[in-house]
């Protein structure tokens, strides 16, 4: 067996195990951590397919950014596991149907690979060609419109995030030290001349 | 290409080993005499009340979401920046290649200005 | 003679030879690195002491030179405490998660032309991806400890690190634009020619001068990213004692310490490679070599220590404002300026 194959099975085993633990772990933080591990090993599998840029991007974007948000969410919303498990049997039929549909879909896609083409075509990059540069060339010539659309989607996501989570500036009362320094006595105190009242 | 990645795989494994070994060593060599007081969480000498894992300000989520969006943007910039010199040196695509990235950036700057005006970047 | 020796050694190990050879290379990087980390702590205490008109460590060995080793031994002999409410496994994994990325990033750092463990096309992207994983060690340590100080520290650090990663990313992208490659070796090579280099003044052709705002943004973001003073609200001892590390002791604590200093050295190496010409000599008549890279890294590391001795700690809102409202606009503007500059006839990066 080639060394590459050994690495592939090693990474895949970790990937499958981590993915299983994502759905079986009782503690949501543990589940999120296993998801991180599975993204990382997926990145490794992509690197084996010579998709250098994608492999590193999945680590950069998913592991480095998306999962940090996930961890934030599961750490800080104190989730009551017993309450979540309450509805398990009620939701089971619906969940099973959705799960089955997904299995069928994935089977159709993966199956067609095996039935149609003998082997998945892995584009072989020549030794001196940089993966990222080729990707850049394609992205900025052939796929310009999807690329610009991506920025619009990012904009929509940004606005949605702000609208959903931002509650407006908090009404906290605080003093600005910079302004305090420039206060003069005349701004604060008014000296009045009061005529003495008559005593009678 | 893959043979260049082999040392990296090894390096990651070595890094993990260096992360694990000292703890194992410390576990073996150092004494281990726990007691209830020693194991209680540090709270300036007070008895700890309630769970430490509390709910947190929503602004932290917002920062994380904004970070994801900008990080994605940078991931898009990387392939463009690596070929920018070639774009500049090719007369035919020079302005096209420059303009498309400026449009991309401009759309995101709109989002950035929106976040600023809405006060999402405030932190007082 | 050398060939025979090489063949003999290869014969002994057989097919395992590439593994052994690469492991040797990795040890040749990691061992000096860890030694450097140990002596950086000593150096830090000495430098800050002299800036405070004190003497600093001087008891263990001549000039206190064995101090870091004594510290390490002491930590090794201390009990590793796992607090009662802690999530034991996550608690013990967290220090490893902090140090592993800090070391793994070194895999692609070149030390001189063609001298490094691995040389991949996308080395800069790799470093950015691996460095972005450093935040996990801190978040998990804070969460697993089940202590309020640790949790607060972890949340602060996560928010701070992600904020400065964006401006760092923009600085990197701008460097890429002028160097036309993601490979760190190529990025250094792109800095050895230019108008000033032609006159023998290579150091004026390095990236720091034309990309000066980016250089500053990158350096300051690097300080923030490693949670160093004046951006150390994460572990500010007068506010939240030691942040995510408050419950850690013994070797588990030592690993966080090592990770912080390894990250500092990494940032220093990257700053030297990206902006200060790496192993290139500053003037035309001196030879290039690893010596120059080491000198530049020492300079950047000295800046880190100097900052700590000079600046008072920032408030958290000031840190966030600096990251989001100053650095991001500055880096966006300079990114555009460099783009226009390269499009114009005045382009100096032909």
TrEMBL record, chain A:
Compartments it resides in: Cell membrane
Membrane topology: Multi-pass membrane protein
Pfam families: Oxidored_q3 (PF00499)
Enzyme class: translocase
InterPro entries hit by this protein: NADH_UbQ/plastoQ_OxRdtase_su6, Nuo/plastoQ_OxRdtase_6_NuoJ
Keywords: Cell membrane, Membrane, NAD, Quinone, Transmembrane, Transmembrane helix, Ubiquinone
Superkingdom of origin organism: Bacteria
GO cellular component terms, A-Z: plasma membrane
Keyword NAD attached: yes
Major localization listed first in the record, in broad terms: membrane
Gene Ontology molecular function terms on file: NADH dehydrogenase (ubiquinone) activity; quinone binding
Catalytic function, reaction form: a quinone + NADH + 5 H(+)(in) = a quinol + NAD(+) + 4 H(+)(out)
Residues spanning the membrane: 6-24, 31-49, 55-77, 89-110, 143-164
EC number(s) given by UniProt: 7.1.1.-
Role according to the record: NDH-1 shuttles electrons from NADH, via FMN and iron-sulfur (Fe-S) centers, to quinones in the respiratory chain. Couples the redox reaction to proton translocation (for every two electrons transferred, four hydrogen ions are translocated across the cytoplasmic membrane), and thus conserves the redox energy in a proton gradient.
Annotated family: Belongs to the complex I subunit 6 family.
Name of the protein in question: NADH-quinone oxidoreductase subunit J
Species of the source: Azospira oryzae (strain ATCC BAA-33 / DSM 13638 / PS)
UniProtKB/TrEMBL annotation, chain B:
Source organism, top-level taxon: Bacteria
Pfam families according to UniProt: Oxidored_q4
Enzyme class at the top of the EC tree: translocase
InterPro entries: NAD(P)H_OxRDtase_bac/plastid, NADH_UbQ/plastoQ_OxRdtase_su3, NDAH_ubi_oxred_su3_sf
Membrane protein topology class: Multi-pass membrane protein
CC terms in the record's Gene Ontology section: NADH dehydrogenase complex; plasma membrane
Gene3D superfamilies: NADH:ubiquinone/plastoquinone oxidoreductase, chain 3
Chemical reaction(s) catalysed: a quinone + NADH + 5 H(+)(in) = a quinol + NAD(+) + 4 H(+)(out)
Transmembrane segment boundaries: 6-30, 60-83, 95-117
Subcellular locations according to the entry: Cell inner membrane; Cell membrane; Membrane
Keywords attached to this entry: Cell inner membrane, Cell membrane, Membrane, NAD, Quinone, Translocase, Transmembrane, Transmembrane helix, Transport, Ubiquinone
Enzyme Commission number(s): 7.1.1.-
Annotated GO MF terms: NADH dehydrogenase (quinone) (non-electrogenic) activity; NADH dehydrogenase (ubiquinone) activity; quinone binding
Subunit-level organization: NDH-1 is composed of 14 different subunits. Subunits NuoA, H, J, K, L, M, N constitute the membrane sector of the complex.
Function: NDH-1 shuttles electrons from NADH, via FMN and iron-sulfur (Fe-S) centers, to quinones in the respiratory chain. The immediate electron acceptor for the enzyme in this species is believed to be ubiquinone. Couples the redox reaction to proton translocation (for every two electrons transferred, four hydrogen ions are translocated across the cytoplasmic membrane), and thus conserves the redox energy in a proton gradient.
Family in the record: Belongs to the complex I subunit 3 family.
Entry protein name: NADH-quinone oxidoreductase subunit A
Organism from which the protein derives: Azospira oryzae (strain ATCC BAA-33 / DSM 13638 / PS) (Dechlorosoma suillum)
Gene expressing this chain: nuoA
From TrEMBL, chain C:
GO biological process per UniProt: aerobic respiration
Top class in the EC scheme: translocase
Membrane topology: Multi-pass membrane protein
Annotated EC: 7.1.1.-
Subunit record text: NDH-1 is composed of 14 different subunits. Subunits NuoA, H, J, K, L, M, N constitute the membrane sector of the complex.
Primary role: NDH-1 shuttles electrons from NADH, via FMN and iron-sulfur (Fe-S) centers, to quinones in the respiratory chain. The immediate electron acceptor for the enzyme in this species is believed to be ubiquinone. Couples the redox reaction to proton translocation (for every two electrons transferred, four hydrogen ions are translocated across the cytoplasmic membrane), and thus conserves the redox energy in a proton gradient. This subunit may bind ubiquinone.
Name of the featured protein: NADH-quinone oxidoreductase subunit H
């Amino acid at each position: 067996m080639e060394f590459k194959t050994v690495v592939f099975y090693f990474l895949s085993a970790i990937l499958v195990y981590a993915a299983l633990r994502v759905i079986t772990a009782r503690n949501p933080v543990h589940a999120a951590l296993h998801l991180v591990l599975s993204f990382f090993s997926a990145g490794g599998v992509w690197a084996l397919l010579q998709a250098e840029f994608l492999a590193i991007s999945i680590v950069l974007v998913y592991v480095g950014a998306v999962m940090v948000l996930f961890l934030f969410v599961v750490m800080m919303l104190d989730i009551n596991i017993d309450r979540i498990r309450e509805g398990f049997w009620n939701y089971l039929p619906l969940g099973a149907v959705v799960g089955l549909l997904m299995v069928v879909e994935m089977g159709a896609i993966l199956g067609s690979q095996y039935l149609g083409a003998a082997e998945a075509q892995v584009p072989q990059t020549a030794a001196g060609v940089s993966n990222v540069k080729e990707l850049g060339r394609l992205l900025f010539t052939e796929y310009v419109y999807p690329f610009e659309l991506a920025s619009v989607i990012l904009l929509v996501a940004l606005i949605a995030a702000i609208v959903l989570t931002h509650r407006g500036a908090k009404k906290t009362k605080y003093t600005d030290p910079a302004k305090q320094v420039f206060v003069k006595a005349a701004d604060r105190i008014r000296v009045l001349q009061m005529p003495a009242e008559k005593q009678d | 290409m893959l043979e260049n990645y082999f040392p990296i795989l090894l390096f990651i494994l070595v890094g993990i080993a260096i992360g694990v070994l000292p703890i194992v060593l410390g576990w073996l060599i150092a004494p281990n005499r726990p007691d209830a007081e020693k194991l209680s969480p540090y709270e300036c000498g007070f008895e700890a009340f309630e769970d430490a894992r509390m709910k947190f300000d929503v602004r932290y989520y917002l920062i994380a979401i904004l970070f994801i969006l900008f990080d994605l943007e940078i991931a898009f910039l990387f392939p463009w920046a690596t070929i920018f010199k070639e774009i500049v040196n090719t007369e035919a695509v020079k302005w096209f290649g420059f303009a498309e990235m400026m449009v991309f950036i401009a759309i995101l700057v709109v989002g950035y200005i929106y976040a600023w005006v809405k006060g999402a970047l405030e932190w007082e | 003679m050398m060939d025979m020796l090489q063949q003999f050694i290869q014969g002994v190990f057989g097919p395992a030879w590439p593994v052994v050879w690469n492991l040797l290379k990795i040890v040749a990087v990691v061992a000096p690195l860890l030694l450097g980390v140990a002596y950086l702590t000593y150096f830090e205490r000495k430098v800050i002491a002299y800036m405070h008109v004190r003497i600093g460590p001087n008891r263990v060995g001549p000039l206190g030179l064995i101090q870091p080793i004594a510290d390490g031994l002491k930590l090794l002999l201390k009990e590793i405490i796992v607090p009662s409410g802690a999530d034991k496994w996550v608690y013990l994994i967290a220090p490893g998660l902090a140090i592993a990325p800090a070391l793994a990033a070194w895999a692609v750092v070149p030390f001189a032309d063609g001298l490094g463990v691995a040389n991949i096309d996308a080395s800069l992207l790799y470093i950015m991806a691996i460095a972005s994983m450093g935040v996990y060690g801190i978040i998990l340590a804070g969460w697993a400890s089940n202590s309020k100080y640790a949790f607060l520290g972890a949340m602060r650090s996560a928010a701070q690190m992600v904020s400065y990663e964006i401006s760092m990313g923009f600085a990197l992208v701008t460097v890429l634009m002028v160097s036309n490659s993601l490979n760190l070796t190529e990025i250094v090579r792109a800095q050895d020619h230019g108008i000033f280099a032609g006159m023998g003044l290579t150091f004026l052709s390095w990236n720091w001068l034309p990309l000066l705002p980016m250089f500053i943004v990158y350096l300051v973001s690097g300080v923030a990213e490693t949670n160093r003073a004046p951006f150390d609200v994460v572990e500010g001892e007068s506010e939240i004692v030691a942040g995510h590390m408050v419950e850690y002791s013994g070797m588990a604590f030592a690993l966080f310490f090592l990770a912080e200093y390894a990250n500092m050295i990494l940032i220093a190496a990257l700053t030297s490679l990206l902006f200060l010409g790496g192993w290139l000599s500053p003037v035309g008549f001196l030879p290039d070599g690893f010596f120059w890279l080491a000198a530049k890294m020492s300079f950047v590391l000295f800046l880190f220590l100097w900052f700590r001795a000079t600046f008072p700690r920032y408030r958290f809102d000031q840190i966030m404002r600096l990251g989001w409202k100053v650095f991001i606009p500055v880096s966006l503007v300079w990114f555009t300026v460099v783009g226009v500059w390269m499009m114009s006839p005045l382009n100096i990066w032909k």
